[in-house]
Amino acid sequence: MKAIVFGGSGFLGSHVADSLTKEGYEVTIFDLLPSPYKQINQDMIVGNILEKELVRNAVKGCDVVYNFAGVADLEIAKENPLKTVEINILGNTIILDACREHGVKRYVFASSLYVYSKTGSIYRSSKQACELIIENYHEDYGLPYAILRYGSLYGPRSDENNWIRKVINQAISEGKITRYGDGEEIREYIHVEDAARCSVDILSKEFENEYVILTGFQQMKIKNMMKMINEMLGNRLELEFLPANSNLHYEITPYSFSPKIAKKYVSKYYLDIGQGLLQCLEDAYKRYHKYKEVNGLMMQDE
Fold first, then answer.
1. For the segment 141-163, what is each residue's pLDDT rounded down to a tens digit?
2. How far is residue 32's CA from residue 258's CA, in Å, rounded to a whole number?
């Protein structure tokens, strides 16, 4: 079985590519930049999802197609509405049409819990449009699909757009964590490796032509997450709460309005959030702060 992962060089996409490889799929990664995480038995195509012929040729022969490509950050989307519409909506449709032409067995689209919430701006609208177009391709051309609505992800390979990555870097660099809001906001964090394994599990018949919610098991207040990070760093941090601004996207996990019924996938995988945060801290020290592991200890390079 062959699979291609559009956006496979990124945070979640790279983990899904690895999970597919572990399950025996022949995996191709398609992205704007070469993947720093590409395994020796994975193929790489460097390109843009707006390049129709390149996408068409890349999809040929694939059984499964994943789409993680596009503008994913809410603030970037808000600042660049035309780019967001072009990449997210047109790019998605170009991939869909290649899937239709080549008889792909399952198209898996990465959506978000923001999609039918009251927040999310142009990002939300672009995801809504993509979901409707995917339904059209199923109704008109019989293309099987699964739409995955991810909650709050964390774990290795994330960048500064990821809140946990951002606050861990601030904690290490500045000795404090700043939060706009009172910290009472609730999230259901899911470790990216758990989410990736679930993203492969949904290829089963049970989830064909379904909307699937992927979040963590445990609801947690932001302030409690901050306290946990502080404890892991020896209670040396200043925890700073500032008046809320537009960056505070939602106060509770955004299930407020969802006309498209979605199944909540109950994962059999669960990496304890404490262990997951320790993994993030170790990853941050290695990637950004010039530390290396020596005999189980994190030592700073000279």
1. 999 999 999 888 999 998 888 88
2. 33
Q: Which are the contacts of 145, defined by CB distance < 8 A and separation ≥ 6?
A: 106, 107, 108, 109, 134, 135, 137, 138, 208, 209
Q: Quick count: other Cβ atoms within 10 Å of Cβ 181? A: 16
> Strand 26-31 and strand 43-46: pairing?
parallel
| Measured distance CA(259)–CA(110) in Å, rounded | 18
pTM: 0.85
Structure tokens at 5: 């992962």
d(CA 302, CA 299): 9
Residue 159 φ then ψ, to 5°: -120, -170
| Alpha carbons 225 and 184: distance in angstroms, whole number | 10
Exposure class string for 273-292: b at 16+ Cβ within 10 A, else e: beebbebbbebbbeeeeebe
Coil/strand/helix, residue 24: coil
Instruction: Indicate the pairing of strand 297-300 with strand 291-294.
Output: antiparallel
Contacts 24+ apart (CB under 8 A), 90-93: 90/50, 91/49, 91/50, 92/49, 92/67, 92/130, 92/133, 92/134, 93/133
What are the C-alpha distances in Å from 190 to residues 1, 155, 272, 275, 290? 28, 9, 9, 12, 27
> DSSP labels for 217-234?
S--EEHHHHHHHHHHHTT
Angle at 154 between CA 24 and CA 35, to 5 degrees: 50
- 5-39 pLDDT tens trace: 999 999 999 999 999 999 999 999 999 999 999 99
Cα of 33 vs its chain's centroid, Å: 17
Under DSSP, the state recorded for 240 is: E
How is domain 2-293 classified at the architecture level of CATH? 3-Layer(aba) Sandwich (3.40)
H-helix or E-strand containing 70? none
Per DSSP, 204 falls in state S
